[in-house]
Design brief:
There is one protein chain. The chain has 240 residues and is mainly beta. It contains 4 helices and 16 strands. It folds into 2 domains: 149 residues, Immunoglobulins (Immunoglobulin-like, Sandwich), CATH 2.60.40; 74 residues, Baseplate protein-like domains (Phage tail protein beta-alpha-beta fold, 3-Layer(bab) Sandwich), CATH 3.55.50. Strands 5-11-10-7-8 form a 5-stranded mixed sheet, with no helix packed on it. A 4-stranded antiparallel sheet has the order 3-4-6-9, with no helix packed on it.
């Protein structure tokens, strides 16, 4: 992991305006590193090994722990640990992409007291799998501080959930009952036309069968059909 420090604005002396202060390195255990603002972020392999990024200056020390694994299209969270060396107010943290676009909802912290520690997490989502260079952007209103902590992530494709299957043995039961049990067992949302709901069916699936195939077989027994809605639910309905 690269070494260095984070830039920040520091209050000037009595005779001058706000001025930039050079970041100061601190002595940390061997597993920790002071991270250079604008340098390459820690790699996924380093994060897997239990390393994390720390930035430090005279006002605060910030530890950022990255999640693993990170899946495309799914929410993940960076863990944050603030160690205030001077009282900071109105602190805001958000994850941003290379273009500066925010990748999740910001987290706001009203106060980080001098000598105190505050834990928080900031969520983000990356839509595509592959390598992603992001940054945790942190700002405070008083003193006025700005820093970006770059992190390099390997984003994995989201795992594909196995298709639900139906296994049941019901004979001569109302269609609504068979569908209710299928919904309970698979978690699928299923509605049925009123005219078909009380017609009887045989739901004899001793061997597991894919959910949609089971619904179609049941619908055919009562002269109906199955339609998949845009939100992933199923409708058992009359043939139009």
């Amino acid at each position: 992991m690269a070494a260095g420090g984070a830039g920040a604005g520091a209050p000037a002396g009595p005779a001058g305006p706000l001025a930039a202060a050079a970041p100061a390195e601190v002595s940390l255990p061997s597993a920790r590193r002071v991270h250079t603002l604008g340098g390459p972020g820690p790699t996924t392999a380093e994060l897997r090994a239990g390393l994390f990024t720390t930035v430090s200056d005279k006002y605060w020390q910030i530890r950022v722990e990255a999640p693993h694994p990170v899946f495309a299209g799914q929410r993940a969270d960076f863990g944050l640990l603030f160690d205030g060396r001077e009282t900071l107010t109105s602190v805001r943290a958000v994850v941003i992409g290379p273009s500066g676009r925010e990748l999740g909802k910001p987290v706001d912290i009203a106060l980080i007291p001098s000598g105190g520690e505050v834990q928080a997490s900031v969520s983000f989502m990356i839509p595509k799998a592959g390598h992603a260079d992001v940054a945790v952007s942190i700002e405070a209103d008083h003193p006025v501080l700005r820093t970006r902590i770059p992190i390099s992530l390997d984003v994995e494709a989201a795992p594909v959930a196995p298709a639900p299957v139906v296994k049941m043995a019901l004979r001569d039961v109302p269609l609504r009952r068979a569908l209710a049990e299928i919904s309970r067992d698979t978690g699928a949302k299923i509605t049925v036309a009123t005219k078909l709901a009380d017609l009887t069916v045989d739901a004899d699936f001793a061997d597991p069968i894919p959910l949609e195939a089971a619904l179609r077989l049941l619908a055919e027994q009562v002269g109906g059909t199955v339609e998949r809605t845009p939100d992933g639910a199923y409708r058992v309905m009359e043939v139009r």
